[in-house]
Amino acid sequence: MSIETTRTTIRRALFATLGIVSVGLAIVGVFVPGMPTTVFAITASYLFARSSPGLDGWLQHHRWLGPPLRRFKATGGMPAKAKALALMSMWTGIGISVYTLSAISMAGQIVTMVLGVAGTATILFAVRTTAARQSLILS
């Protein structure tokens, strides 16, 4: 076994492991307001595509994660309604977190708000807005 083969095997295992962690976080995001789902699903898809075609295929056809992932892959963005819902749920979670952290740490509140602003900027400016019709067709 050559060094190059060993590196490739280790890299694939690392990517597959990180992909599984990303899927776990995406599934948690389905149930927890303010936690992103699609971002972790996209990350998992990227990692699986580079490590395990079988896991990538499973993710593409997953009951909960597959539709938004396929929609994002086909359109390269999110419909405006989905963006609005993502921002509302994210800021609800941030508000609850900031309130909860008020008794514990001002630094934690500031970090939470900064991350919320960064997430908002990403959704608004880095993620393309697509037509709602495209998202309905791909569902």
Offer a quick outline of the entry:
The protein has 139 residues and is mainly alpha-helical. It has helices at residues 3-31, 38-49, 53-60, 66-75, 80-101, 106-126, 132-138, and strands spanning 77-79, 128-130. It has a two-stranded parallel sheet.
Features:
139 residues; single chain; 2 domains; 2 strands; mainly alpha; disordered C terminus; globular; two-stranded parallel ribbon
Task: Explain this structure.
The chain is mainly α. The protein has two domains: 1-75, no CATH class; 78-139. The protein contains seven helices and two strands. The chain has a two-stranded parallel ribbon with strand order 1-2.
Report the average pLDDT across residues: 85
What gross morphology would you assign? Answer: globular
The count of helical stretches stands at 7
- How far apart lie the N and C ends? 45 Å
Number of domain modules: 2
Strand line-up in the sheet with most strands = 1-2
